[in-house]
Amino acid sequence: MDTSYPREDSLPAPSHKRQPPAAPGSPAPRDHLLWSIFNTIYMNFCCLGFVALAFSVKARDRKVAGDVEAARQLSSKARCYNALATAGSVVLPLLLAALVVTGVIHLSKLAQESVGFFAYQFSGTDEEDK
Mind listing the pLDDT tens digit for each residue in 80-89? Predict the structure, then answer.
């Protein structure tokens, strides 16, 4: 009788099996870690940069573990959140600047039109009263 521990027939089955390595011609998925770090530190619009960083780290972990398909899915999510964070951080300040510029232009035109209304000249002669 074999009393060694642990017995091979009683080992729990692994929750996920390692997939075989990718074919030599297919590129490894990118994890977009630097882009995520940049978005987290400099352009963290609605915390999307932090979410992208979390997916980038998970993608890198899956790539190191050999789970290429999960790494591709997580990498795709990281890229999507990075694109949203970058677009939000670039588009919103540009939109705000455009609103400020159009407001200034509108106010300057309004001021020029109202100059004639407020430019009442007082004269010392009574010729105008006659």
Answer: 999 999 998 8
